[in-house]
Amino acid sequence: MKIMKFYILAILLFTTHISIAQIEFKAEVSKNKLGVNQRFKIEFTVNKQGADNFVPPAFTNFKIVGGPSSSVNQSWINGKASYSQAYIYIIQPKKIGEFTIEPAKIEYKGETFTSNAVKITVTKEVEIPKDPNNPEYVAQQSIHLVAEVSNLSPYVGEGIYVVYKLFVSENINLNGSRITESPQYKGFWNQDILVKDVNFKRGKYNGEDYRYVILKKAVLIPQRSGKLVIEPIEMDFSLGIPTGRGDFFGNMITRNINYSTKSATKNIQVKALPEEGKPIDFSGAVGELDFKVTANKKVLKANEASQIKVEISGRGNLKLFEIPKITTPAELEVYTPEHKEQVATSLNGLRGTISDTYTVVPQFKGKYKIPEVTFSYFSPKEKKYKTITTDAIIVDVTEGKELPSSVAANGNTIQKQQVVSNDNNFRFIALNTTFKPIIEEEFLNSTLFYVLLLFPFLAIPIAIIIGNRRAKRAGDVFGNKIRKADKLARKYLSTAKKQLGNQEAFYIALEKALHNFLKAKLHVETSEISQERIAEILKNKNVEDTVIEEFVSVLNNCDFARYTPSTNVLMNQDFDKAKNIITKIDKYL
Fewer CB within 10 Å, N side or C side of the chain? Predict the structure, then answer.
């Protein structure tokens, strides 16, 4: 019984494996070589019902102009069933070259299968044969994208417009369309104009009757001189192309195709504004403009507000330059101006008014003059610069306090007095004198004043640098140990010098100085100091053997001299040897 179950299970697994192995998933294209202006069909076909979760390739270097669409073909012939499902795309290359379309993926019974990769060769644009039965040729002759530019040679700052129109022949059906690439306006200030009427109208294209619709309108203002490019607009279409045959009822049979096209690139040669005659105050205004400065009140009381309005109106690049500013006396309090723009955008460019409104509040009684204001702009129509100068505005403050300069300290008005002359006014004039001028330098604007003024600015960064160095040094634990040992070596060497004549104290201090020197220079602890260890470390530091022997000899003398009689002469000799050997080793290290 167990054997029978094993055979049944084996047969089922084998059958399942065969059924999975028989799945076929492949990719086929309508053409492997084509021009960059052509398109082709790619079809992914699977022969098993139940396959799902189809994942297309990335189509790098290609753009999809149609699809995806799918079709199913199922038949039963002579008792044998067949099934196929296709996923169809219409694609077009983006550039010239040889490219590979990577495999697609699909799932069937829990497993993932991949199609074959397809190689495509793309050449330069090819001329579509003039065949009235070729749908591509018919579409090429029946669909036109046109970019109309108002001026191909404007000045910098002069507004122009571009209008994109779609012309469609009367004999084809436009089933659908979409913009795939919007135009870019590099080097231009631009603003789109709302297209309200999107219905087809009748018009002419190359002398023939067409339907047309306006797709896009924009105002462009060039920002630099030289050659600028208005890039094309690109669109995809779904078209019904007549085949020239009729159906049973006499209706024309059409063939649906996908088609893409683009408008022509427009080159704009922008002229620079002339340097000759350019005013000093020119700020980039270009157009046909007017300028005025007005006040809503010229006679008022102190602390009463008046509105001074600086206004530019007309047609031009109104949003791309600064409005001139007014100059007011110090006795008038002036607030930040309120900026307003009332500008409409049309095919004629920017038209309207821009203004700055100043609120002016006088503090004292008197008459105050707001000087003339000038505004310069370039007129493309007359091809020259123009300057407008407004009249000065006199603000008369009839009531209020007098200016501080004419008021006494006690608040009373100072009255001018008549000078009375008499015979004694010039009775003696000294021609010679011994007086010497007293030169007293005022503290304000003096050298000391500027030194004290700048001192905090100099002291702060110096204090920061010193503080950072101290903090860095305090955090350098290893370096602090080295500096401490070096300091101790100098201390003990000086201590040994003071103990000359006192044998035991001298040699103890001398030995400690040598040990601390080693700790400072060789980074070794006292527990590690031995003659063998010292010789090994110094040899690794490339110190000569004779120098090492001298150092060890001094250490030995310190050790033995404490227990044997010694004289001041010997102690001085050992001190000099210690100084010399430290100097020699320090040079090596």
Answer: N
